[in-house]
Task: structure prediction
Amino acid sequence: MDFVGTFRAIAAAAIAFVPPAIAQDLLKDSPASDWRELDPENTLYLELPAGRVVIELAPAYAPANVAAIRKLLRQRYFDGSVVLRVQDNYVVQWARPEDDPRAKAMAAVKVKPEFSRPVDPGLEFTPLPYPDTYAPEVGFSQGFAAARDAKRGETWLVHCYGSVGVGRDDDADSGNGSELYAVIGQSPRGPAPMGFYEKPSQRIPIASARLAADVPEAGRLRLEALRTDSATFKAYIASRATRKESWFKDPIGRIGVCNMPLPVRVKGS
Amino acid sequence: MDFVGTFRAIAAAAIAFVPPAIAQDLLKDSPASDWRELDPENTLYLELPAGRVVIELAPAYAPANVAAIRKLLRQRYFDGSVVLRVQDNYVVQWARPEDDPRAKAMAAVKVKPEFSRPVDPGLEFTPLPYPDTYAPEVGFSQGFAAARDAKRGETWLVHCYGSVGVGRDDDADSGNGSELYAVIGQSPRGPAPMGFYEKPSQRIPIASARLAADVPEAGRLRLEALRTDSATFKAYIASRATRKESWFKDPIGRIGVCNMPLPVRVKGS
Result:
């Protein structure tokens, strides 16, 4: 449940995210300074049979867990791991198989939970001015959907479609980065089998997992994301909140924090 | 965008929805009167290669559109239709292929839009006492996730995972029930190809679509749903809002209107 990043499925080098027409114009005309290139130290490539999945890590929100994951990546821990669970409308989860010696060795490793962090005026938070069911305030921070509770002085990343978290057992410190999940919906349908594949042969193999920083330049995807504190992102929020397309008979005037996929593009494209 | 029902994927006769352990006890001990059997006139079976999908129609919210769909079903209009679009985290859409003569004949048929209906004190509305991003008030009505705007005097069914709607073009009255969609997520990733299969051979065939009322008794699934105005449903809301399982380190105390899958079971099971 510690949030480490956002999962962005990218088949080969094609960016899966294509914003609606109105937002496209807005993005096309945006100044280069409204975009930021992903930091290779915070960019994780998972190589699946269907292509590369790019995950951006969020060390500002989960420094200990991100450090643990970086260490595992550099030990090639996830090479030969598998997607062992796909629970419709809930999560995709991956890890080394339970009976693998390296998985067994990790069982005793504990990393402190980072469910939230203290509010810090120096940390970007771009508020979304609409109510949310779960948090007193929602918005965006460094490209991630985020929430804030001023009374408790806490801020955290939100469980939206595509968010990646650290799996754990009941104990809060039982996660260690060796088991990760991506959110693919919001209604759990437990209990067992909870989407776990019955046979190991059904599992989806992960050929390798690397930090972009550890991949030769030629093999990297140079991605840039729209800065969530930029004027363009604020205009993009407004364009999605108030629907201008003729299809919408009611412009609505609001948007949910999980209904704002982050614009990402290949640099120079 | 007119809401006609809720899509419940059921492979063979096994109910896909299995509530969490705590809710299971609650449901097991519930009185029979807290459940209602689905009305065969409002129950639609779609027969797909993966099994039967059961959809409950909502004539209280979209009477004209439900009547149009019933008429099409009785003309066997959807036998030989196809799932022609699966857009990840957005919608699944099905219809007869565009070049089919019956599809062409339907192009001119218009049914009035039923985006919302007047609030009526005689129509069940069980409020969910938590804020929602889009509506002043949310809750449940006749088993469906619903919303209400007292100021406008309007109520409507909500676009949650599994909701089924009537597809249309830009004109509000261009839908006619011959093209339906199920919501599978909340972040559109338009524009083209918007999840449309490129080749007709990729489409998923729908062998038949029938009202349960038109299927011989032996071929029906006798399903019952928890009444959303029952004491058991209210306890189920409370159990999902305030998480008691030891896995949750924060009980939260709130739940979203789309995070409350309706308990459904085979009658007598």
Remarks:
- The domain at 2-266 of chain A is CATH 2.40.100.10 (Cyclophilin).
- Chain A has one domain: 2-266.
- Chain A touches chain B through 42 residues (CB under 8 Å).
- The first strand of chain A starts at residue 2 and ends at 11.
